[in-house]
Design goal:
This protein has one helix and five strands; from the N terminus they run E-E-E-H-E-E. The chain is mainly β. Strands 3-2-1-4-5 form a five-stranded antiparallel sheet. Strand 2 (14-18) and strand 3 form a beta hairpin.
């Protein structure tokens, strides 16, 4: 899935992306580290992978990987 980098904090290695419909979705350091990136700038197109969450525990969709979009 593609998204646009919205915010990024280099100290915590976490931030948010915007889905193409404008929905902000946060990511944590584990998702950032999984993509092998060193830096992320707002406005960059990224590829994200998510998991569906768990309806039993009430956790929603979660980003598991953030990396640069390549064509």
């Amino acid at each position: 899935m593609q998204a646009t980098a919205y915010t990024y904090d280099p100290e915590s290695r976490s931030g948010q992306v915007l889905l193409d419909d404008g929905t902000p979705v946060p990511f944590d350091a584990a998702a950032f580290d999984a993509g092998g990136l060193r830096l992320l700038r707002p406005g960059q197109r990224v590829r994200i992978e998510t998991d569906a969450g768990d309806a039993d525990t009430g956790t929603g969709r979660r980003i598991t990987l953030v990396t640069l979009q390549t064509f």
